[in-house]
Write a structure and sequence with these properties.
The protein is an alpha+beta fold. Helix 5 packs parallel to helix 8 and helix 8 crosses helix 9. It is extended and about 110 Å long. It is built from 11 helices and 9 strands. Strand 7 and strand 8 form a beta hairpin.
């Protein structure tokens, strides 16, 4: 009995007491192993964000965040919970970036498994050279070359034709504002379809005609051309914008594009004046006019307005055989189209006074001789 008690078979101890298998280790306080982050603020200074501190951008309310930030945060939240929210117009729950990446990965894996382990050297692989040698007599190459040649020939013919107008350079330099405006209007009214016309090679047959029309139209205007409203607001600031805008008009308006001058005032300096500039104030009617959308690209790449009819009052200023500036305003009261409105009635209107004031600034107050013509039947 004494031996039995000494062997440790005494009263039971509570679980976990003393040494042995059931003993639990004492819990130690958790150590924050996160690292500090370094970010730059709005001034470009380096700031330290310690563990537990919030990023300054996290405290910005949603009302002050940009649309791009809100979309990116929505994308991250959707990716975390396993579905993608509507981002960039997609609402089908598909992460297209992940799909593309996985497709490229499968393609690369398949390509790697199909490749031969030992490929012949390219320098001595005569079969590969013959296989990939370009055949000069192939139908595709011949057709493409013929198309390029035909297009170059047509464009060269259009350029040559636009220069052969049969007018002397000295005569062009002596043209006044009325002659230049009439010449530009005649080119403006030449008919070119707005429908694409392709030949067998895929070339647009309208391009030589459009280029020839544009070149003859621009011959009437100087490189310093500026188009403004009568109040002085710039519409087309330089020659490049002027060219892009009217290229879109000629290309998109079609064969129905037409303009008429219904009434005209012509201004010229007196014989003793040193001013060599001439001016004409035209009341114009434009039909089937197509223009770029306001505030967007002038070449029409971002959309155009539907065809419309528009009445305009335009002041042309010319010197040295070129139109150097234009001032425009809408003819809201149909002064040009109403045959009952004569010269005296037009001169008493507010719009004529605005153009006359603009004209006096251009000539510096020098006296001008005025002529009036009405072309209404």
């Amino acid at each position: 009995l004494v031996v039995f008690m000494a062997s440790g078979f005494g009263p039971a101890k509570p679980f976990g007491a003393g040494r042995g298998r059931g003993k639990r280790a004492a819990e130690e306080p958790a150590v924050d192993t996160r690292r500090a982050r370094f970010v730059r603020d709005e001034h470009g200074d380096l700031q330290v964000i310690r563990p537990g501190e919030k990023h300054p951008d996290d405290e910005v309310p949603d009302e002050e965040k940009s649309e791009e930030q809100l979309q990116y945060e929505a994308y991250l939240r959707g990716k975390t919970r396993g579905d993608i929210a509507k981002i960039s117009g997609y609402s089908d729950g598909i992460d297209r970036a992940a799909v593309v990446d996985s497709a490229y990965a499968r393609q690369a894996e398949q390509k790697g498994s199909d490749e031969r382990k030992f490929a012949p050297a390219r320098a001595y692989n005569h079969a590969n050279k013959l296989k990939h040698r370009k055949q000069p007599n192939s139908v595709a190459d011949t057709s493409r070359a013929d198309g390029i040649q035909a297009m170059n020939t047509a464009m060269a013919r259009a350029r040559d034709g636009s220069d052969e107008d049969g007018e002397d350079d000295q005569m062009s330099l002596s043209m006044n504002a009325v002659q230049l405006a009439n010449r530009a209007m005649e080119t403006y009214n030449s008919q070119i379809s707005n429908l694409v016309q392709l030949d067998v090679h895929g070339n647009d047959l309208r391009l030589p005609q459009l280029e020839r029309k544009m070149r003859k139209f621009l011959e009437c205007f100087g490189e310093e051309i500026v188009v403004q409203t009568v109040q002085g607001q710039v519409v087309l600031k330089d020659f490049d914008q002027f060219r892009k805008r009217y290229s879109t008009v000629f290309r998109e308006s079609g064969a129905q594009l037409h303009a008429d001058v219904r009434k005209r005032f012509y201004f010229e300096a007196e014989g003793s004046s040193e001013c060599d500039s001439t001016f004409c104030l035209d009341f114009e009617r434009h039909t089937s006019l197509v223009t770029p959308r306001p505030g967007l690209a002038l070449d029409g790449s971002m959309g155009v307005l539907p065809p419309r009819d528009q009445d305009l009052v335009v002041l042309y200023a010319a010197s040295g055989g070129e139109i150097n500036s234009m001032c425009i305003a809408p003819d809201q009261h149909n002064l040009g189209g109403d045959p009952t409105i004569d010269q005296a009635a037009i001169e008493s209107t507010e719009i004529f006074g605005s153009f006359r004031g603009r004209l006096d600034k251009l000539v510096g107050g020098e006296p001008l001789v005025m002529h009036f013509n009405s072309y209404l039947e």
